[in-house]
Amino acid sequence: MNVIETKIKDLLILEPRIFADERGWFMESFNQQGFEKILAERGLEVPNFVQDNHSLSQKGVLRGLHYQLDPHAQGKLVRVVQGRAWDVAVDIRQGSLTFGEWVGVELSGENHKQFWIPAGFAHGFIALEDNTQFLYKTTNYYSKACERSIVWNDKDLAIDWQIEENMVIQLTDKDRLAKPFKERID
Questions:
Q1: Residues 19-52: pLDDT tens digits?
Q2: Residue 89 forms beta bridges with which residues?
Q3: Residues 164-180: what's their mean pLDDT?
Q4: Given 54, 66, 72, 123, the catalytic residue
Q5: Which residues, at least 6 apart from 143, have a Cβ–Cβ distance to it below 8 Å?
Q6: Domains of the chain, with CATH numbers?
Q7: Residue 176: helix, strand or coil by DSSP?
Q8: Catalytic one among 67, 112, 123, 136?
Q9: Is 54 a known active-site residue?
Q10: Angle at CA 128, nearest 5°, toward 99 and 148?
Q11: Cis peptide leading into 65, omega within 30 of 0?
């Protein structure tokens, strides 16, 4: 597996090895020992995954920026198995040297990339194609009481969402009414 380190130390982009021939392809999408080794080599905490989630979004659907408070904060290992999405993680860890900074990566069914986002980051994505299927493993169970959101187009964060010309953004009421970054609840 190829590991791409980002400008924020704890965020990693993982590129699995693809074995392809005229019949199709094969890849190991997750290997606990391999994942632990990648994190340990970088001095990062090794998580325990407890839940897998799968979503389907049409082009222009934007989900996020979501996070959960302790004791239900979640790390996420995310990937797209069909379609394309622009995936974003924002550092919301008080005292972090990269507090308020973000990293974005295109995930697609073609590039097979995965994005490791540990707890302490807000997460969101926009579907760049219809029928985009998004999978993610989480390190904690969902808790509605601990769920929070930051408005996706916060001026202080200035996230480049890779919005294409004439793309219609679709949001839930929860995401439309999310708080600005400076007002988020930690």
A1: 999 999 999 999 999 999 999 999 999 999 999 9
A2: 103, 123
A3: 94
A4: 66
A5: 68, 72
A6: 2-183 (2.60.120.10)
A7: helix
A8: 136
A9: no
A10: 40
A11: yes
